Amino acid sequence: MDSVYYCSLPPDALQSLRLPEEDIAEVARQLATPVVKDGAPGASKRQRRAHGQDEFCATSPADIRRACRSAVSEQIQRFREEAFGSPHTQEVLSCPITGDKLVDDRLTHVHHQYPFSFCSIIDGFQTERGVDLSEAPMTGGEFQSTSLRLEFANYHGKVARLLLVSRMANQSILKTGDGKNTCRCDECGRVVPCEWFTQFQVALCYVCRRYRHFLAKTEAMRLGATPEELRGLTFEERANPISRNFPCMKLYRFADVAAVLRLKYSSFDALLAALECRAQAMQQRLAKKQQRDGQRHYDLRSSAREVPGPSDTGEEGGHQNALRGSSSHDAEEGHVETMFADDMVQNCNVPMPVRDRIKEVVAPFFRNETKFRVVRQKRLFAVLLRLCMAFTK
């Protein structure tokens, strides 16, 4: 026979029936779970002990997770020891999720942060290494192969992002809703819902990913970088926040764009001079456009009084005022971005004369006073302050 069958009857019960061997196998098949001789898929621990089978191949995800956790137990223990320090350390640790005090006991758990949960690490290991852990021989809840245990431990050490939290946070809060995406931001260090950027291997919160770490391609070109200079930089594509119908925006790291501008311009004053030239050219184009729009609105008002002209709605005409209504997207991001820009302005070490010159350069790039334009003006002002500090390093 190729298989052994476990059932709830005593071992000699089927033999005492004096049935043919084929009939005994059929009865056992109907009463119990089949188990291959060289392993024990589907068998319970009690059945394995009864038949003396200590070595088996894992079939359930729980067996695989148990063996993998055993392989990385030393890393988890080392992380706990480093977090709590020596027994003489008086530092009090608290859970970043619940605020509870953390002590070195069972109520303190080591959580695998987003985006690499422990299950995703196991799946990634099997995909990258091309192995099937369900076929790996196990003994006593561990993989028999020492090389397999070491290989998984090394992979875990490279990709795992560990965080010390309370038991309630690990088993409840971080398992549902926004908790699944909650981790420590690599930029500001806060434990909040974050987004993972594969190209840069960083997790960033909303404020850092939109206003600190990245610059969009349009912003980089506004500062003087050309598409050819940006072509060699690493970027991450994301859906356009204004409209999903627009092409995906390309996000570059601020440090990379600053390095490109430092190579292109000898000093920050040279960068501001180039921006001033662009601002003057933009003002000339805007004046010609306003002149054309004004004449067109005058003709429309003369023929059909329904469309208000420049004298009724301002220099830009009625169709420009229709664009002034701020969308829900502008209202949502306006408060956060204004807070960031104001905080950046207050905490930078740029002299006041340089700040005044930056304001003069920024103003022509935004032609009306809607909330969206004011927010963008503050953002460009804050970005130039950061570039000024980058040039002076």
From TrEMBL:
Gene3D superfamilies: XPA C-terminal domain (3.90.530.10). Residues 286-332 are annotated as: Disordered. It comes from Vitrella brassicaformis (strain CCMP3155). Residues 290-304 have a biased composition (Basic and acidic residues). This is Uncharacterized protein. InterPro entries: XPA_sf.
